[in-house]
Design goal:
The structure is a single chain. With 109 residues, the chain is mainly alpha-helical. It has two domains: 65 residues, Rossmann fold, CATH 3.40.50; 44 residues. Helices cover 72% and strands 7% of the residues. It has a two-stranded parallel ribbon. It starts with 6 loop residues before the first strand and ends with a helix.
């Protein structure tokens, strides 16, 4: 797909997450050789559709599965986790301070 080629594939594993039927290629049920043959013939009979699926597939790879996109998405996750940890640490620190103040009040009363 990254080379702007259309795809004819079976719906197994993670392929349906990558190949969008009718948009970036053709998807058929697993173990259905007649459907696979039919989709290959449909692709060969529609050179314009093959080119369009190839272009759309290349855009999908660039926008969804590129290294740059994965770096940005990974950084977002790390930043979210860091914010949660910092927030939890801040809450815990406030609770620790409150607990220590209560102890002082009890001891002095």
């Amino acid at each position: 797909m990254s080379l702007s080629l259309s795809i004819v594939a079976t719906e197994v594993g993670g392929i349906p997450e990558v190949v969008l039927d009718g948009e970036t290629g053709w998807l058929v049920k697993a173990k259905d050789s007649d459907a696979l043959a039919g989709s290959i013939l449909a692709a060969l009979r529609s050179p314009h559709k093959m080119l369009e699926c190839g272009r759309m597939g290349q855009l999908r790879v660039q926008n969804t599965f590129s290294v740059e996109k994965m770096i940005v998405d990974t950084e977002k996750i790390y930043n979210q986790l860091l914010a949660q940890v910092l927030c939890n640490n801040s809450i815990n620190a406030k609770n620790d301070v409150s607990s220590s103040h209560e102890g002082i009040k009890r001891d002095t009363v």
